[in-house]
């Protein structure tokens, strides 16, 4: 199998979803594409892809934005993994996470999907949960707001001021993950406190 990494930004296709919290994974991939100086192209696996290297002499990566809806992200992801010959341990899902506060980034390998339909479909299609995740915190819905309504809304005015810094940090986390490994990236991006809820 190849040393190439498949970096997947989860989200929904279409202009009406572009600014949603649920699409923060795709926003991070746009940031990475900007750093690589490339443009996404349409792939037959129902995804937009950009092939290249992360940084000078960096690892070879395929940035991917599935063009299916979030809850059926698995087909495009497994199609790309098969096309490029990439094992699940070299697959990185970048996604929104309501279980951690806005402006927080966490990384992990495997584990549950926490009710995230995009991850659930990925796990099913890849036949494993053992792939890497870069979890971009969007915080919990206020009051009694439904979770689906919350993640399918755009970031609030105050959040939008900090959003460029969050996307920049998440892109840094992806780069460090594929360059230096999960443990090094966790040590840099996770808060040092032991009482932080995972």
From TrEMBL:
Gene (name only): pth
PROSITE patterns assigned: PEPT_TRNA_HYDROL_1, PEPT_TRNA_HYDROL_2
Residues with site note (Discriminates between blocked and unblocked aminoacyl-tRNA): 12
Example GO molecular function: tRNA binding
Function comment: Catalyzes the release of premature peptidyl moieties from peptidyl-tRNA molecules trapped in stalled 50S ribosomal subunits, and thus maintains levels of free tRNAs and 50S ribosomes. Hydrolyzes ribosome-free peptidyl-tRNAs (with 1 or more amino acids incorporated), which drop off the ribosome during protein synthesis, or as a result of ribosome stalling.
Site (Stabilizes the basic form of H active site to accept a proton): 96
Residues annotated as transmembrane: none
UniProt enzyme class: hydrolase
EC numbers on record: 3.1.1.29
Location relative to the cell: Cytoplasm
Family note: Belongs to the PTH family.
Keywords: Cytoplasm, Hydrolase, RNA-binding, tRNA-binding
Active site: 22 (proton acceptor)
Domain of life the protein comes from: Bacteria
Cellular compartments per GO CC: cytoplasm
Main subcellular location of this protein, as a coarse class: cytoplasm
Catalytic activities: an N-acyl-L-alpha-aminoacyl-tRNA + H2O = an N-acyl-L-amino acid + a tRNA + H(+)
Protein name, per record: Peptidyl-tRNA hydrolase
Known partners and oligomeric status: Monomer.
Residues annotated to bind tRNA: 17, 69, 71, 117
Gene3D superfamilies: Peptidyl-tRNA hydrolase
Short name of one Pfam family: Pept_tRNA_hydro
Biological processes, Gene Ontology terms: protein quality control for misfolded or incompletely synthesized proteins; rescue of stalled ribosome
